[in-house]
Amino acid sequence: MSSENSSADDSSADDVQRVWDVVVVGAGPAGASAAYAAAVAGRRVLLLEKAELPRYKTCGGGIIGPSRDCLPPGFELPFRDRVHAVTFSHNGRFARTRRSKQMLFGLINRPEFDQQLVEHAQKAGAELRTGVTVQRVEQHGSSVPDRRTVAVVLQGGETVLARAVVGADGSASRIGAHVGVKLDQVDLGLEAEIPVPETVAEDWKGRVLIDWGPIPGSYGWVFPKGDTLTVGVISARGEGAATKRYLEDFIGRLGLAGFEPSISSGHLTRCRADDSPLSRGRVLVCGDAAGLLEPWTREGISFALRSGRLAGEWAVRIAEAHDAVDTRRQALNYAFAIKAGLGVEMSVGKRLLIAFERRPGLFHAGLTGLRPVWKAFMDITRGATSLGEIVRTRPMAQRALTALDRRQAGPAADAADAADVSS
Fold this sequence. Notes:
The protein has helices at residues 3-17, 29-40, 65-69, 110-123, 174-179, 198-204, 240-253, 301-320, 324-358, 360-369, 371-382, 387-393, 395-407, 414-422; strands spanning 19-25, 45-49, 62-63, 81-83, 85-90, 93-99, 105-107, 127-130, 134-138, 150-154, 159-167, 183-195, 207-212, 219-225, 228-236, 263-272, 279-280, 283-285. By secondary structure, the protein is α/β, with parallel strands linked by helices. Helix 2 (29-40) links the parallel strand 1 (19-25) and strand 2 (45-49). It has 14 helices and 18 strands.
């Protein structure tokens, strides 16, 4: 029997019990992408969001090539600026600007971007409920009528039933806690939205600043968005006072201390451990809820969009599964798809972060002084390649990363480094 006929046979019973094919928790990029993917497949999809839309999110708002390539057909990006130049500095010093004739990436405001993604999911057939807080999910017990059903328990006691659930409820995910997501890296990002006069805005138009910071693994950014500059810094959690001081110093030396921010915010980004689960029974996690982001740059939008789309597609398969064996098979296939793509990029990013924490000057020198490094940066931001692809296909990149890895072992590896790079 085809899955379409099976779904039709189940529909009358499900209508009585109000069982959704897929319930997605969280309406950010990951959740909206999952809801869109499941709805396009013709399934009954409910998208739950605790806030009212549009809502602000702490995020630089950079849309790189992989993000653009994962958007629904017909999606028009609400760019506030298009970046053709990047100024790199090392804790405020050694600034150098590199330029590109082609656009490197675009800048958006998250409230507009997220709202538009949700609207595309709705047009595809997903139903949206906002102002709804999910307390927990249950896959066993009196609230679950059968083994093919998941109960999503809302604040106030209401229960929503689904054949599959996708957790996309952010870095402090309750669905992630249910799945048992384990974290390997937690960072603190601080950000200010600073309205500036036209003369200041014009100076930043089309150009961003990336500053390698004073705390190991930290960096700061300035992203122009019309009459507002998004200024932020990020570093490892546990360095809260130093991170706040870095942001204050960063804003001060940019000459922006005299302008009052319209919004000041903070956010924890969480990166999964290699052995962290991506599912439990009929529940999948994606995006920040799964700890999916690039560890070095902490870029998360493209990871959210890509993992959300995959989660939506596999949630449809799980919704159609008639027993625990098939459910498990589909969940494992989802995990394999994530690890084979995003997982490879995360692995390379983790290696780069470890090297960057110890030798930020090498990264600065490479990006500002070596054309192959700058070209790799341009290719990644445009979506022509990825970190994983560069390491896999370019022998020089493999050797350089191996040399950086060995440097973490200490001076004893120096001779091996020299031999490796010169060969």
